[in-house]
Specification:
It is a single chain. Helices cover 36% and strands 21% of the residues. It has 426 residues and is an alpha/beta fold. The strands form 2 sheets. Strands 1, 2, 3, 4, 5, 6, 12, 13 and 14 form a 9-stranded mixed beta sheet that branches. Strands 7, 8, 9, 10 and 11 form a 5-stranded antiparallel beta sheet that branches. Bound molecules: zinc ion (ZN). The site of zinc ion has 6 residues, from loops.
Amino acid sequence: MLSMLRETCEISINKERLIHDLNAISRIGLGDHGAVTRLVFSVKELRARQLLIHLMNHAGLKVHVDRIGNIFGRLNGANSKAPAVLAGSHLDTVVQGGKFDGPVGVIGALEAVRTLRENNVVFAHPLEVVCFVGEESSRFGFSTLGSSLVAGEVKLEDLANAVDAHGTKLEDVLSSMGIYRHNLTSLKRDPASIKAYLELHIEQGPILEAKAKKIGLVTSIAAPTRLKVVFAGQADHSGTTPMEMRKDALVAAARFISYVEDVCLEFSHMDKGRVVGTVGALKIEPGVINAIPGKAELSVDIRSISAESKDQVAKLIIEQAREIAQRRNISVDILPIRNELPVALDEGLLLLIEEGCKRKGIPYEIMPSGAGHDAMQMAKITRAGMIFVPSRRGISHNPLEWTEPEDICLGSQLLMETIVRLANED
Ligand SMILES: [Zn+2]
């Protein structure tokens, strides 16, 4: 076993091939100024998934695509019946996002597994490279769709509230592809078929760069609570309606938005229960210069690694929305989109990855994740671990998102070594 490990450490991933394939994925959906847009179930996102299937076939992996479109590329070890070590991430992006959020974890895992295959490395448990569908919530306000289904965590009624900016319902998009709601519960994977899940991902925050660390080992993931809040007042003429007789939905929304900031600032001094809250989308009707806004629809995203603080803030925010509406004599609808619990990742996996860092002398940081990831769903059915690589200036969900190729390669190499150790563990 020890000699096998020593040998594996001497095997290197193919850096050029990894960066080449990452670039090939980035070109799908590439727009102005290097922005990448591959919204879930768009033609571009489907093409990226198709390219991945091609790359997996080429690498000699056995490809399985489940009903929603999650892709699993499998390489059997000595014991094909044993639970598999899974590693991956997602290929969908936000609108005008970057090249690395998601693909680093998918292509990084693919590179790890194909390197092992090429070098005839001996391992017992099967390996699977995974691409989950719809990790980003940008299109439907619904995050980690594919991994939630695999973890059996989707409430089917939640899907019914999911609508994109063009008014297209997630359910309709799915049914146009022959995917029906009632079939989706069967995607839950038997936990006995999985040994562990590993995800390599860009940090999406400034900590690793600021501390000059190359690798982040993730302890826990802050999960979002998401609401849609709709203020409905009355659209009227902007010239003839006296100020005191107005039912302006946008002014109500404005007061509400600044409350979200105020309350989260109040909770930001807490060490463990820090809460962040964002109103990231706002739609007003009729949305013209000479009419009082009759309707304002906005999204609220609240996150914390403390479920207690998050619930407290969500409760205050909901109360405030009702109060504002009552004060202004308009109505408000509050639709819960998602309420996720913060998730602790597996300590044993963290220690295993940490050992790898120590062995190679890699400077690392042990840290929580402020962003959600597929790993938080997988953690509900298996041991899950995450490896972060630095994000320049902490920027992500933006064309300026950047991670040094060397750092991506280091992450993929560490992932490969962790996979081998896991796949030979009893
Ligand atoms: Zn991501």
